[in-house]
Predict the structure.
Amino acid sequence: MSLYYEPIVYTIPPEEEGMLLKTILQKRMNVSRKLISKLKLTEQGIMLNGTRVYISVKVQSGDRVEIRMERERSDDILPEPIPFDILFEDEHLLVVNKAAGMIVHPTHGHYTGTLANGVVHYWQTKGELFRFRPVHRLDQETTGVLVVAKNPYVHQHISEQMTMGTVDKRYTALVHGCPDPQEGRVDGPIDRNPDDLHLRMVTPDGYPALTLYKLEEAWNEGSRIGIKLESGRTHQIRVHMTSIGCPLIGDKMYRNTPADAAQRERYDQLDAQMPRQALHASELSLVHPVTGEQLTFCAPLPDDMAKLQELLRNQNGGLT
């Protein structure tokens, strides 16, 4: 196995002749300063027409610029034969449909049984060597699309897309009640709840958070909501939907308690049908950092949410 991953290549067009290699790396290939510094320390990190050069040289039309990153391993993650659903994979990206109850990365008290343990084992059985680099997170009980970068260049690029808001993340939620209005935006800053630091809350002094929502289907006892995130705060969807009176069915951490006893009982009955918050990361779109292709990944509604949805439909019939 080669010491390096497959090179990322850029060919100089005529209009860029005479530019500094450093400028090409930063402005055309969008390599971060931090990664450039790391690449300069390796023998084949930055190559021009197959030769190691200083990044201060000027390039010519047709020159081939290559960056090669050294292979990395996740030595701090124990490989475990944990099955997971792959939506897409190439030499740069792994996209999975995360299952409910699965933690993404080992944390204090959860060193095994995570998605990372399963992915590292999967790569090991294929004879591949990558470091586990998730570019975003999903709550333990949230299902759906999750993207893992296979090298720091790809991780950097997708992280920048997320910062710029060009990654389109869509969610499906089954909630108590029906939002009014049926389509809108929740623009509510989020921060820790001082009474319980494990919880988040909407507060004027919090971090900016924006959630767009749209009613997709409504029933007498609940509704299905399509959600698009414009920011990525911890528990954002759960907090925002609770703040507008539509907590996620099954959510034990965030819930409005209805004053009406009969309504409370109906809430309890629905929550008993769902062992987790009814939230699913259904779709994610991004630009592939290497090929430039616009990609969209979709994950079908998981069985538990599909069964709950059918129950809601059958109780009193759909309203929309």
